Structures are given as C-alpha cells and as structure tokens.
Amino acid sequence: MTHKYEFESLLRWSLKKLDDHTATISNKLISRLGDLGGRLLILSVQLQMSSLATRIEDSWIQDIRSSDPTQSQKALEAALDIAELSPIHRRFHGKVYYTYLQAILNHNKSASIPAENPVEFINHVSSKLSGERTSRLYGGFWSLSQLQVRLSVPPQIKSDFSCSCAASPCLVAWNEWWDEKLRSLNPPPQDPGDLLQRIQALALSGICRVNRRRDSYHSNQPTKVPCSSKMAAQLGEMMKTFNDTLPDHFMIPSE
Ligand SMILES: [Zn+2]
Question: Of 82, 141, 151, 199, whose CA is between 20 and 30 Å from 1?
C-alpha cells in the first residue's frame, strides 16, 4: 500500500515539474510527444492537475486547426481516441469536434454553417472518419446550423432588467442593434460561436440606438441605452452557454 502512495506522490511531483516547465514553452512541444501526450492528458485529468490538462488540450486544439487537412484529421483522431475513453473528457470531446468542423470550413474557403452546399460538406467528411465519428460530426453540423439560424434574429433579452425593457427604448434598440451589427459583420460569421464572439466584442463599446434618420438638430454621437451593460453581460452569458453546451451539439454521452 505504501508503495502505491509513494508512486502517486512521485507521479504528482513529476507532473508538477512538467507543468511548471511547459508553462514557459511553446504549446507545440506537447503535441510532439505523440502517444505520450495522450497518456499525460489522462493522468493530469485523473490527478486533477487542471492547468497541465488544459495546456495539453489547448495544444491539441491548435493541431486540429492546422491548415493542412491531413494533419488536422490526424490530430482529430488522436484527440478522439483519448476523449472517447471517459465522460471525464466530455468538454474537451465537444471542443475537439467543433474545432474540426471549423477546420473543415477553413479548408473549404467560403464555406459556413449552415452550408450553402451541405452535400459537398458531407462528401468531404464521410470518406475519412469511422461511422460513429461521422454521425457525431453530421449531428453537430446540423445542430449548430439550427442555432445559427436562430441567431439570425435578435435573441430575447431578459425580462428582469430594471428599466423593464419591454416598455422602454431598450428592446427596440436591442433588436435594431442586433440586426445592424449582424449585417455589418464582414466576412460573414462562419458558425454560431464565431457570430457570438464577434457580436460580443462589438457590445463592449456599448449598445446604442441605431441612428437611422440623422438630423442636424441632434448630435450624431450615439448614446448608450440604459440597459447596455446588462445586454453586454447577457451576451457574455450566451457565449459561456455556447461553450458549455458544445458536447450536446455532438450528442456526446454524459455517462
Ligand atoms: Zn432597459
């Protein structure tokens, strides 16, 4: 028994050393570890060494983003081999599929979710992955497409805002602001995560009444609506929810 604990503390100690060391070097080095990278990820998750686990995961995500489709797919499959081992990796599992979906869209320039030509997208994927992985990818693609369509109209703002937006200019401003910002995104958003992230960044400078009729009597300086900061905070929550629910889009089991 004592040996078991000694071993565990030795393991913990060496992972801690590795964690400290990798904090100062490029992410790429971890991905060069190959199979060892996977074992390190499993150990660091089991021992709840979250900073090391996050670093290994991030390096994997970076590899999946590769501009070389073959490299990207290789990194995807290696990451899925680990992620599929246990629901403990569920969050990473969802992010892996989402990143690969984005990589496919990047490899096929001008593609986006929903795809203008879903058949082409499906052909691109189907020849390369196993049946279950392919269906998760399709499922995720379909589910994210639905979300993208829902976001093409302004999301409902919370009714508990103190100035009771329904009766105030806030609601009108929010709807007009959303429509206008969405239209102005150039290039158009590639997927709902991209859309939310860019809209959220625009909200940081304040949500203002969209000035449709500029008249000379009033200043053209836009003024923030009373609930601007609450709306920006709501966008922050939507972004968080998006990231938290990524595994659901790809139907990744929770146990
Ligand atoms: Zn308001």
Answer: 82
